[in-house]
């Protein structure tokens, strides 16, 4: 007699359902492996038994990577919208990290190799830190730590060279500053630039009128000299000038 064809419907008996799953699971995994090798494809297979036990298979890439590739597909290629997409991507990354850590723990040789690399890197950084600290001590040496004339001369030479470099830089900056300095932009220039009449231009014709009015006063005699600022001061404060005995010539 031939094999009775199994009707495709749920097996009601729990034991028979578990046995059927166990037999067909191995065949399904075998087919998935053959397909991934023959066609060189990414494949991820996840199954839960009737009792809730997990079975999974992936080809050349991790299941997390295959699922992330699927989630990152455009909606029209994926065939629908995935809810909480960002959360799923974050969870897949976390699962990948945990899987890699578990693999390292399962392989002590890999863990030891990583520890040795980290120790060598730490040693290199410690040497760089020590050299940097030694160079910094040259700028602020501790006299109690200097025990020989060679150390004194070496430290002195280093500090003098640093001082010379700073001095040269200062001269360079000063020369650039003086070259870019324009006296015409000074705030006092408008007071120091006289008109043809000898009166500062900042006060204009009003100051000339003040001087003329003061000269017309018979109580005061005003002489406008070569210094326009002093003449203006005498004009504005004649009483103070006379009380101090100042005479403008």
Main sheet summary: 2 strands, antiparallel
Total number of strands:
2
Helix content: 55-70%
The first-level CATH class of the largest domain is given as Alpha Beta
Instruction: Quickly give the CATH architecture of the largest domain.
Output: 3-Layer(aba) Sandwich
Task: Describe this protein's structure.
- The N and C termini lie far apart (147 Å).
- Helix 2 (63-71) runs antiparallel to helix 4.
- The protein has 249 residues and is mainly alpha-helical.
- 4% of the residues are buried.
- The chain has 10 helices and 2 strands, in the order αββααααααααα.
- Strands 1-2 form a two-stranded antiparallel ribbon.
- It has helices at residues 14-39, 63-71, 75-78, 85-106, 108-139, 149-180, 189-192, 204-216, 228-236, 238-243; strands at 44-48, 54-58.
- The protein has 4 domains: 14-106, SRF-like, CATH 3.40.1810.10; 107-139; 141-179; 194-243, no CATH class.
- It is found in: Nucleus.
- InterPro entries: MADS-box/MEF2_TF, MEF2-like_N, TF_MADSbox, TF_MADSbox_sf.
- Keywords: Coiled coil, DNA-binding, Nucleus, Transcription, Transcription regulation.
Name the descriptors.
249 residues; 2 strands; 4 domains; 63% helix; mainly alpha; SRF-like; two-stranded antiparallel sheet
